[in-house]
Amino acid sequence: MDHVRGSSLAWPDSLETLRPFIVTWWSGRTIEDMPADIAAVFSASGIQHSHINLALVALDSKGEVLRSTVPWVNPPSFGFDAEAQGRNFNAQLDELLSGLKLPVANNPAKPKLTLPDVAGKTQPSGVRILLTFAENRLNHYRTPIVEAVALTDALRKSLRYPAVGGTLTAAQLKPWLEQIYPAAIMDGQGGFQKIAGKLEFKAAGSDSTYHYAVAEGDVQFVLDNANGSSYHGTLSIALKYRRSDKGLFSVRGVFEADVPKGPEWIHMTAALESLPK
Amino acid sequence: MAIFPLALLLATPAIEPQVTKPNAKVQEIEGRFKAARPDEKRLAFYSLDWAMSLTEAKARAKNENRPILLILNTNITAGTNFFSGHT
User: Fold this and answer.
1) Helix, strand counts (H, E) of chain A
2) Distance in angstroms (rounded) separating the CA atoms of residues B45 and A52
3) What is the pLDDT of residues A37-61, one digit of tens each?
4) Which chain B positions have a beta carbon within 8 Å of A100's beta carbon?
5) Is A273 in the B-facing interface, judged by CB distances under 8 Å?
6) Which of A18, A126, B17, B33 could form a disulfide with A252 if both were Cys (CB 3.0 to 4.6 A apart)?
7) Arithmetic mean of pLDDT over chain B
8) Residue B87 and residue B81: Cα distance in Å, rounded?
9) DSSP alpha helix (H) spans, A128-168
């Protein structure tokens, strides 16, 4: 699916084709996992596939199914050329929507980013992790993976201002670290055999408003796929604390590693930012 | 021996904790974070008008008189989330 997100839906013409729509999704292991409302749309769509790499269903403003398709997305047939794949996907979108009388917005809102988020307005309520990947031979991962993780009481406790310095373990940071992996691990279950490492955690100065701390260290990952794909890199985190009560205020972090994908190693970068600021 | 005037000693305010600057490591990490965070162009996929559920999409579609595109995908082996990208 990383090609669908990166080379098809994110193709500029496809984005413009879909601007009139409110876009939503359902993902699961099998169609049997569909909740009732999704299953009802799926049934009405007439799609017969029991396994769906990708299906698109257009509905009207009353939620009635207008048309559906199972697009043909096959990167090898385009020589993994993102542009050729993007043009083909947009042509399939045009075919899906051809002849449909869709409402026309008089004053369409300017597009804005909707990124995965956490509930709550407390600063900080969570951390967003944005994974980007370097250019690679088969054009994998052209669209960033973005996850948001709520800040648990345990994480908050682990990240208390380190007046005398100390250590953070990978286990303490697991809610963040378990989001730092590439997509499309074909034989994986989305988990890890191991995440291990230690970060040195120490105070790092102050100004009139905040105290600062940094945590840095090497983290090793072993995925739960058949080959036990592994990678490691340095995680660096800068933390800001309110000077008044030394309460955690914000987090900024970076992790970089080369991750295996078939015969290639692809450079992955994770940017970590606290939410809402 | 110099005699320190008691009145002056009593009038001296308590010493405030030293205000320094965040150290160079903080600035280095924040610089690397800024370089690592993808820009709006790279995040264009997220510029579609996403609703977090079909229920939300239907409510908005009714209010805004707009169509919905529902994307479906299954993946038997891995945990999957088409929106976040861990598919």
Assistant:
1) 6, 11
2) 21
3) 999 999 999 998 888 888 999 999 9
4) 67
5) yes
6) B33
7) 82
8) 5
9) 153-158
Q: Which of A6-15, A260-269, B27-36 has the lowest mean pLDDT?
A: A6-15
Shortest Cα distance from A63 to chain B (angstroms)? 6
Q: Which of A159, A165, A177, A183 is nearest to A241 (CA)?
A: A159
The beta-carbon neighbor of A188 closest among B42, B64, B78 is B78
Token pair 């002849």 in the structure block, residue: A99
Whether residue A183 contacts residue B85, with contact meaning beta carbons closer than 8 Å, is answered with yes
- CA-nearest residue to B61 within chain A is A61
Question: pLDDT at position A191, please?
Answer: 86
Task: Tell me the pLDDT tens digit for each residue of A213-237.
Answer: 999 999 999 998 888 999 999 999 9
Handedness of CA A5, B71, B53, A110 (dihedral sign): positive
Q: Which pLDDT score, from 0 to 100, does residue A262 have?
A: 82
CB B33 within 8 A of CB A251: no
* Sheet of A65-69, strands arranged across: A65-69, A55-59, B68-74, A22-28, B49-50
Which pLDDT does position A91 carry in this prediction?
A: 92
The Cα A151–Cα A186 span in angstroms is 30
Burial of A62 (0-12, 13-18, 19+ CB in 10 A): exposed
Interchain CB contact of A210 with B (< 8 Å): yes
Place of tokens 């610089």: B31
Token output for B54: 């079909």
- Rounded to a whole number of angstroms, the CA Rg of chain A reads 22
Structure tokens at A24: 């939503």
